[in-house]
Amino acid sequence: MHVCRHSLKAEQIGCDAVSVDGFECGGHPGEDDMPNMILLPRAAEELKIPFVASGGMADARSLVAVLALGAAGMNMGTRFIATKEAPVHENVKRALVAATELDTRLVMRAIRNTERVLKNKGVDRLIEIEREKGAKLQIADIHAEVAGVYPKVMIDGEMDAGAWSCGMVVGLIKDVPTVKELIDRIMADAERIILDRLAGLVGVENKAALKVA
């Protein structure tokens, strides 16, 4: 399975499936700012191979929504970092629970290497450099804020070391469950959404048919 924003090319070269990243995602969302509400239906229209949705995925609501938009499932990145088994420093998990959907920033746009990261002092320094340099920005100008950051953050828990990827979905993260607890909760809640809320919208007589399906 290839993780990409160039899904048609991935299909052409023989990938069995793709993970399609919307603009909401942590890390590199591409340069077209295309959110999943548009990207996923377009992928469903164009692709013959299955795809999963990435970017903004956190819970049962995410799963049911992307199934409706044509995806075969969802891919969670930031949400899985905030689990008990995730091999990262506890400071990282606490930061994810404390953050809101307004706490991510887009950096490196001037060099067309856009990355969505969690706001911290290192990111503030990076953004200030970007403002000063403008279109003349070079990767060397921000090397200290983007290179070698992950070990400092993920292993040592230095939360202000620099830029590290984080999706807007951080605003939906309220706890640090085990992976099993998270997945069981998603599947149980998704079933309730489909059988109760959605079946109720189309009529009670269809509810039994949905349960059989």
Cα-based radius of gyration, to the nearest Å: 19 Å
Query: Which regions contain 5 or more consecutive residues with pLDDT less than 50?
Result: none
Protein structure class: alpha/beta
- Mean pLDDT over the residues: 92
Shape: globular
List SSEs in N-to-C order: EHEHEHEHHEEHHHHH
Helix count, per DSSP? 10
Tell me what portion of residues adopts beta-strand conformation: 5-15%
Query: Helical amount among residues, as a percent range?
Result: 40-55%
Give the termini distance in whole angstroms. 27 Å
What is the strand tally?
6
| Biggest sheet overview | 4 strands, parallel
Q: Order of strands across the biggest sheet? A: 1-2-3-4
